[in-house]
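We close this part of the discussion by returning to an individual protein. Part of our work consisted of pairing the sequence of a single chain with a tokenised description of its backbone. No coordinates are needed to read the tokens, only the vocabulary itself. The amino acid sequence and the backbone structure tokens for this protein are reproduced below:
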Amino acid sequence: MSIKHAIVHQLISNTAVTLNLREEELMSGEQLTELMNHTKSAFYNRSSKQYGQFAEEAGHFKALTQQWQAGGIGFTSLTTQLMKQLQLEIEEQKLETEGHWFFALETLESGDNFWFFHLKHKDGMMLTHDMNLSDARLIDFAKLGFGGYVDLTAMKNNEQKYLTVSFGFGDRVLQSALLNFVNFVDTINTAEDTDRFLEIVKAYSEALPQDKGSNYRKKAIEFCTEQDKLGETVVAEEMATVLKDEVGTEGPETLVTFMETREPEAKREFIPNRASLKKFQRYTGKTKEVSISFSNEILGRNVNFDPASETLTISNLPANLLKQLKSVVGDGD
């Protein structure tokens, strides 16, 4: 069992603030494992994660976590004191919120992670044991709130990135209070890292024979996208090896040696940014009257752009669009 400790508490803030604290940890079992898996899956599927660490100045979240790691307090005491600190943040900014907070320590081969999630609910219906209908309150994993984790091993080793957070559905007004609560400082710009790496991939693919170059770029974006889905980093050497086998690029210069020559300061390992990946997959734009989206692979083939006149020429139109256009022209005649 990878979950060593787990507990939930409840915080409700509307006309008054109510804090309901659980005194004992949750029992291990299938339901706890399922809760952990659902929350982690929802978290990993988000595109808006932020990566960093605790602020240099001492904060309650950082201080309590370190005290817990040193054996000064237990897990239940840690989470109880964290909830009291969150209550103060919510009261101070006069914010409204409700739901349960789930805390868990997960031990893996790669290290220990301290997870925290704001669980929100939705109304449902259930059949009781005597087969009567009854109202029910269900955890709404599709609208998981603010959450994240502390990589305790990385924190102990004083690494630059050990705290990952992400906001959920309806968290906009709570953002300031929640970031204060966890003492978060952003140390990594994933969009900047991804943009720079993909520009290097683009330059490298343009140096390859045309048929292999376009395929290489496509496969590179697919590789990065798959790593993002898995919640993993992109490692340039690993990607270069995989794509050499898939695309069949030959020659003395690999992507890695190309990077060393052209962009020696660029990161060889980075966290992919989903929004940046989409920019390199498709060109999109819209006004009130027009919406256009097409794969970057067909630019220069089925879609041609004239920068002088700022016009697009599109050939090989979709069959359903052609049918609509011909119908309109036919009606006009």
In short: The chain has two domains: 3-186, 190-278.
